[in-house]
Amino acid sequence: MKRRAPLTQRKYFFSLLVLLSGYILLAAASGKKPESKRRNPNLPRSYKPIDQIEHDLFQLQLKYPDLLHVEKIGRTAGMGQPIWAIKVSDNVQKREDEPRILFEGVHHAREPIGANICLELAKTLCEKYKTDPQIKNWVDSIEIWLVPVVNPDGYKYIFENDLRFPWWRKNLRDNDGDGVFNPLYDGVDLNRNYGYNWQEGGDGKPGSWFYRGEAPFSENETLAIMNLARRENFAIGISYHSYGESVLFPWGNFKRPPDLDLIVEIAGEMASRIKRESGRGQYSVLPLNGRVGQSSIWMYAEQHVIDYIIEVGTQYFPTEESVPFIIKENLKGAFYLFDRVLETGIKGHVFDTYTKKPLLAEIKVKELSADYVKPRMTDKEFGGFHRLLTPGEFTLEIHSQGYFPKTIKNVRVKRGKCTDFEIGLIPNRKLTNGH
Q: What does the DSSP assignment read for 411-424?
């Protein structure tokens, strides 16, 4: 009997690959935490690599399947990594007729603490849902969305390379199309890529760290946020950045925001609840530059979302010792928003008077309207709307294509109360028949 020939080199590597695959599957099945290929030794241990963040998201979904759902909302422009969003709600698999809030982190690669805050917020809401009546009320009454890492490529680049200050800011867009990442030329500043006043802000030169991209929403990352915002019709939101210990609102250096009193009031209430790292005083309140294509500028002008950027901490990578304190304080600001979105304003539904079909409609507050800020829209699935206001007396103007408009005068809004409306519109037969 002839001796069996030894394995060829090709078969050897194939066998090795099968063996390694088995170990990977076993590790996944046992719930072991994934290990990043390499970790930048200059980073504090408080910040997790992108694969660990992804693992934690799905572990939360496994642990709280009735409260938390993970959704892929896009892929990155450079490496094709998934961009993950989290939804927290009492009926998380259903889309409910409730106000919605959005929290985002890590538009800029060197500002990772936003991911820490988003993850801790999601975890706290789920863990305390059954034991804390206030948290239960928030989760039962609001659909809460979080995008912990808007810029996974830039985040990964910092973690897996020996970078130091000033780290890296942009995504990994291959600006010159040569297939090789060049930090002197490539990348887009995602928080200069939003589509309102885009052409006036940032820099038009690809090598700049503030390069705004070749067009508004040219990047998959900002496009993912835009699509999510349009779909979910958020009432209010926060995008976490570092650093500066300030609540930034839309906007200054541009035409006066019609909702300025409301915007500044909410910013002040949030800031007053968030202590500085030093323990002396609270966060400041400052205006954003309205002539820059930033997330909060676009959210407010195009979607009428009362949206803020919060610059947390005193450096891009707050120290390991300071991170728990910063997170704890910033959760207080988030908790205030949960209360605020449920009070002092107007809510209700717009529908066809005869068929009761929900309508997509504009909800204008006449006294707070401007041609450079789009009005709030109803949710097209429910016809529902939610509009935060300060106390006062207002006139509502409701418009829907194919229907006669309606005006409601002397609408009184009281502090701490949300005035409810059920608004039926009559079809304009001349328009619906095409005449």
A: EEE-TT-EEEEEEE
CATH architecture label of 50-340: 3-Layer(aba) Sandwich (3.40)
Token look-up 């929403």 returns 217
- Domain assignments of the chain as residue spans, ordered by start: 50-340, 346-432
**What topology is assigned to 346-432 in CATH?**
Immunoglobulin-like (2.60.40)
Assigned token pair, 71 = 């959704």
The length of the chain is 435
Distances (CA, A) of 133 to 67, 136, 344, 350: 15, 5, 21, 31
DSSP string, 93-127: TS--SS-EEEEEE-SSTT-THHHHHHHHHHHHHHH
pLDDT above 70 as % of the chain: 90
Lowest mean pLDDT segment, chosen from 9-13, 113-117, 151-155, 207-211: 9-13
Which residue, chain included where needed, has tokens 């490539």? 186
189-220 tens-digit pLDDT? 999 999 999 999 999 999 999 999 999 999 99
- What value does the mean pLDDT take over residues 306-335? 96
Full-model pTM: 0.89
Distance of alpha carbon 252 from the chain centroid: 22
Question: Quick one: which H or E segment has residue 352?
Answer: strand 345-352
Give the span between the Cα atoms of 251 and 335, in whole angstroms: 23
Nearest in space to 197 (alpha carbons), one of 111, 312, 119, 292: 292
